[in-house]
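Hi V.,

You were right to ask for the full record rather than a summary. Here it is.
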Amino acid sequence: MSFGEYLKALRRQRGLTQKELAGLAGFSNTELSRIESGDRKKPSPAILRAVAPHLGVSSQDLFKRAGYLEEVIEHEGYVEHVFTDEDGQLADIVRRVKQMQEVDSDWVNISYRVSRELPEEDLEAIKAIASSLLRKNEKRQ
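Predicted structure:
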């Protein structure tokens, strides 16, 4: 199964149209159509990060499925995921935990436990509340 077919299957499992998913993720449905049809072989990391929460998968899972190579580097207090393309060019680094740890270590510990211990429906509810608060904050700025 190609990456485009995989993405389409995830989208359909969630009951979303291309236009709905693109709207939720903040990019054009034309771009999503290109990915699903196979015209865009290697979607950008930004798009993968944007669609992942709406498809119920992690961005890291999408990176790997899209063919990005992952290197996992363990540091004290967090793990860093470095993604490169087949030419070894850096595509993305996921190290937000380090930044979170520096700002509020209690929040890091809580979020880690929540992600590991709560059922999916509770995680979705927490994500929806957090997203709503972030949108509210963006409107204030």
